[in-house]
Amino acid sequence: MSYISLSGLSAAQLDLNTTSNNIANANTFGFKESRAEFGDVYSNSLFTNSKTTPGSGVQANKIAQQFHEGSSIYTNNPMDLRISGTGYFAVAKDKLVPQQNELTRNGAFHLDKNNYMVTSNDEYLMGYQVNKDTGDVLSYEASPVNIPAEFGKPKQTANIEVGVNLPANGKLKDPALFDYTDPETYNRSTSSTIYDSMGQAYKMTSYYLKDQTQANTWQVYYTVTDKEGEKPINIVGGDATAGSGQTGHTLKFNNDGTLASINSGQNVVSEPLGAGANPLNLNGADINQTLSFGLDAATQFAAPFELTKFDEDGATTGFLTKVDFDENGSILGTYSNGENVILGRVALVRVANEQGLDKKGATQWDTTQESGDKIWGESNKGSFGTITSGTLEQSNIDMTQELVDLISAQRNFQANSRALEVDNQLQQNILQIR
Vertex 374, ends 138 and 389: CA angle to 5°? Predict the structure, then answer.
């Protein structure tokens, strides 16, 4: 009897430990509860009657993990990720050995000093490289996810395409009197940013005036502002000539407001801009940086002045301003130069038998022969779940049920203690018989 009671005490203690561990991890992100499973012990010999043998106690068969999903908690951190459905994140302790990785449902990630996405234990999140144009995964060979702090080399401005409506009832101006410092000598102006070959930005301003000397005709002049201030620039081959000698574009319109012609000087020339950069060239054949300024989409309708189109191909180096994730696990980087780039895709892993996973602590598991090998995939495809940004998976602990289990394990412990006490008392009574 004493051995039976001792096995009951041991089982009750194991049940208490398991329940206590569940309760202790109620606020651990991605934690999965465990359940103590027991079996009876039965043994008999040739000299016993199996019909009257009560059994030999209880034994622990397994601490089974319960992998059902926990509830969601919403955060303001886009790097907090949750998997809704099947799958695990893969994390590696050593970024140089990404093949040695473990699995987790805890999606609380952040950037380290080298801009790698890591866990709170500084383990590296695994992801895939993607085609920058299509966003498709290139290979399921996972590597640590790195978010570049900078993106793109400087790109000097080569083309600007502008669409503008110039009002048909605009006030007539004399081109001979044009002065970009005097707003009374032109009708309207627009500004844009251009870049030299070093990525230095400059303001380029276009000035529009309705020519009083020619019907349905507008003149366009240009300036560039650098650290020395605003200076006029000239169109090579331009036929719009101001009183100062500055040349620009001449736009002639048909009676229906459509563009009839534009002078052949399509580019613009200025002095060299930034130190060490290629000089900005607005149509000069011998200067390195050529800028084409297109006005083919210009109109003259009886409507207010309006900029209807603006396309520019220049850019400076961009610095990371924001990171987002879509439902496919794609990592979207936003940079200060206006570039929005798909930087990679978060890798997901599943196994054939979750109960066979080996617990490693820190809400991580490793595969075993019982679980089967890792099956790599991606969010929202096949049998894999969907990644949600700004959300974490809470522990799947049901606190009410755990407290009930705690009371039940406590009662079992007390009952087995009492049985052991009774057995001890019986043994003492037998020893005292004379």
Answer: 65
